[in-house]
Amino acid sequence: MFLKKTTGPRTAHLRDGSILTLADLPPPDTRWVASRKAVVVAAVEHGLLRRDEAITRYDLTEEEFDAWVQAVARYGRNALKITQLQKFRQL
């Protein structure tokens, strides 16, 4: 197996006991669903991916990514679901 050299860690241990790796990141042309958004946020929080790399790789605005981070921090992964957006905006 060939592993690409990276400057940061290759894996991160999440609070739920699971392990997140660079291979778990969604492809750049992904269709965004809550679980994929949460993976990108977790990768940045745990140092697998820098914030600016995530924004560039996934063609996000800084405000959009920051909104994801705030939603996860305040309400958890469910806040990233588009069907729950109005519910969590009112809180």
UniProtKB/TrEMBL annotation:
Molecular function terms from GO: sequence-specific DNA binding
Superkingdom, taxonomy of origin: Bacteria
Gene3D superfamilies given in the database record: Winged helix-like DNA-binding domain superfamily/Winged helix DNA-binding domain (1.10.10.10)
Name assigned to this protein: DUF1153 domain-containing protein
Protein's organism: Paracoccus limosus
Classification of source organism: Bacteria, Pseudomonadati, Pseudomonadota, Alphaproteobacteria, Rhodobacterales
